[in-house]
Amino acid sequence: MNKIEVKKDIFWVGAVDWNVREFHGHTYSTKRGTTYNAYLILDEKIALVDTVYGPFAGELIQKIRDIVPPGKIDYIVANHVEIDHSGAMPEIMKLLPNAKVFCTAKCKEGLFRHYYQNWDFHVVKTGDKLSLGKRSLAFIEAPMIHWPDSMFTYCPEEELLLPNDAFGQHYATSERFDDEVDMCALMDEAQKYYANILIPLGSIILKKIEEIKNLNIPIKMIAPSHGIIWRKEPAKIINAYVSWAKNATKPRVVVVYETMWGATEKMAKNIVQGLTDSGIAVKLFDIAKSDRSEVVKEMLDAKGYVIGSSTHGNGMLTNIAGFLDFLKGLKPKNRIAAAFGSYGWAGGAVDSIEAILKETGIEIAQPSLSAKYVPDENEIRRCYEYGKEFAAKIK
Ligand code: FEO
User: Fold this and answer.
1) Which of 32, 96, 98 lies closest to 70, judged by CA?
2) Are 107 and 149 in contact (CB under 8 A)?
3) For 287, which DSSP code?
4) CATH number at residue 118
5) What does the alpha-carbon distance between residue 239 and residue 230 come to, in Å, rounded to a whole number?
6) Per the residue annotation, which of 17, 84, 265, 354 is the catalytic one?
7) Global pTM exceeds 0.90
């Protein structure tokens, strides 16, 4: 098997998970699969940075065996405890029981609570270094990007950053580098990753990027633990993260709704027409039929959200309720929104939509719009105008 050399004597020994379609329980759809990236660094000492998800331990071990006998590994760097990166540790540690495991204090605690093994842990903090011989590894704690234990590892001699989840994408490919794949697909997956996992951590991410800039460490390559390695233009993904973390938006609107018998859908389509005729780019999703992770990806840089539901009981329908609850956890900032929907007798959907949007910290830009049973001609026209009014606030 061809060995994939990321830099001289630094090998990708990860695994491609072509068929995974859900991640983090059911919260994240991975329609393009994913990869679990691990890196083997050969020097006077041999280090393995991260492992892979447990079911892929055999692939990891075989890839290492093609390069060196696994027992020769001196050090394992565990950047993150989550099982997609540490799951293979029990298997690999059987082959190298004396290897030292370098990780943060929280990672040590987390690894123990997952595997109950007293491995030879060495707790590291930001600024600590580990010499491998000609090269070295420097550690940068990165708590809450995205778990308390998370850490980045940097090899100064290669100007190589190994940031684990950060800058990653769920993107299964036979290629390993950014200059080998379709850039639109790559950025699409990077955006989806950020939107579904990192939106609430924007201020922490900005501080970490600033801290790394202040360390004055040149970065020629970013090798995350999911997806594609950034070697052509690592600044591209760093700049995208800065923009997303600053909640920068475009004058775009995402309309998300759920409909019971089609009346709310009719309202949604006419609102979309009003927005479109005002020159605003719009995406429309019936959340009962849509992939929630993709909708959130579209919302990442959209300035406006228009949310609709038919009334059910005294509130909204269940799919849109679940979606808005997920959005509330993501806490997108610097957005405006409006609510609409049809009702039969008592109403209540638009009030419950507005309430959760306010809890999320999103400004309600205009009064909600309701229609009894099925909107008549005047109400259809009113939906169109409603879209135009919202468009004026987006521009
Ligand atoms: Fe936080 Fe890829 O695991």
Assistant:
1) 96
2) yes
3) T
4) 3.60.15.10
5) 13
6) 84
7) yes
Q: Is 165 a catalytic residue?
A: yes
List the domain range (segments joined by +) for residue 73: 4-245
pLDDT for 23: 94
Q: Give residue-wise pLDDT tens across range 292-304.
A: 999 999 999 999 9
Give the neighbor-by-neighbor strand order of the sheet with 4-7.
Answer: 4-7, 10-12, 39-41, 47-49, 75-77, 100-103, 120-123
Identify whether residues 182 and 98 lie together within a single domain. Answer: yes
Could you tell me the distance, in angstroms and rounded to a whole number, from the CA of residue 81 to the centre of ligand 1?
Answer: 8
β-bridge partners, 253: 282, 304
Nearest CA among 326, 329, 274, 265 for reference residue 304: 274
* pLDDT 10s digits, 162-212: 999 999 999 999 999 999 999 999 999 999 999 999 999 999 999 999 999
Catalytic residue selected from 165, 258, 379, 389: 165
36, 39, 85, 146: the catalytic one is 146
Structure tokens at 207: 């501080």
Same-domain status, 213 and 267: no
pLDDT for position 97: 83
| Residues 269, 128 within the same domain | no
Q: How far is the CA of 197 from the centre of ligand 1 (A)?
A: 10
Query: How far does residue 23's CA lie from ligand 1's centre (Å)?
Result: 10
**Domain shared by 56 and 191, yes or no:** yes
Total count of residues recorded for the chain: 395
Q: Tokens 């695994």 sit at which residue?
A: 15
How far is residue 271's CA from residue 385's CA, in Å, rounded to a whole number? 7
> Could you tell me if 348 and 286 are in contact, meaning their C-beta atoms sit under 8 angstroms apart?
no
CATH number at residue 292: 3.40.50.360
User: Alpha-carbon distance 220 to 234, whole Å?
Assistant: 7
Is 294 catalytic? The answer is no
Whose CA is closest to atom 2 on ligand 1?
165
Return the structure tokens found at 353.
Answer: 């939509």
Tokens 């997303």 appear where?
A: 244
Q: Are residues 61 and 100 in the same domain?
A: yes
Evaluate: CB of 297 within 6 angstroms of ligand 1: no
Of 245, 277, 308, which residue constitutes the final position of a domain?
Answer: 245
